[in-house]
Design brief:
The chain is 8% helix and 50% strand. The chain is mainly beta.
Amino acid sequence: MTRSRWPTPSLQLVLALVLLSGFLTTDIAAKEPTLIIRPTQPKQTKPIGSSLILNCQPDVDQPEFITNLKWLDPMNRTIDQTPTAGAHVTTMVTSSNNLGLVITGLTEADVGTYTCTAMYSNSEYLVRSVVVDSFNDITWVDAPTEQYPIAGSSYKVRCKVKADPAPLIDWYKQDARIQDGNGFVKDIDGLLIQNVTAEDDGIYKCRAIVLDTGSILDRDIRVEVRSYYTVHGITMQRRLTGFHL
């Protein structure tokens, strides 16, 4: 009978290997304690005047061991859950062991880094931050929806827009994009129509686009071409299509 080259392991060695395997499995299975802020993007950019909520959620094996969960403002001050009069940056419990940061009516003064912190098992300090930024959304400054050029004159269809970052402005008539030339000149605050005629009557669309924020906004402007006429020495206007004021 041929004897094995390897000695038979002792019972103590087998038990030691089993215990070691158990410890290794436990270490591998245990997740690294951390905090998750949702939405998960590290920078949240919102228009001035809007509202938002950012939820801080502990991602740990035993959530019941989470203590002192809180939000800090950009000045590293704790944000209270009980809002004071006029406060628009507060916190609220969104679910068990979850804390939301609520900003209502975002202003430029609210921009900065907000930090969520917590203690886990009284021994591990957890921290996660998010940047809140703002932008001025598209606003119509001077863009009347009805405008009345006089035939034979040059007239700028007004469409002054404000946004930050600055918007791009484009023009359409009957869904056809207007190009510079053929009596049209696109300007920063409107569309110049040279030598207005009855053919310029119609619905124009002023479109504002901010590429950095993905904002797009349209404004329809009715252009009614008119002419002067005189009755008994009184100068009046009428639409070239025959509509009288």
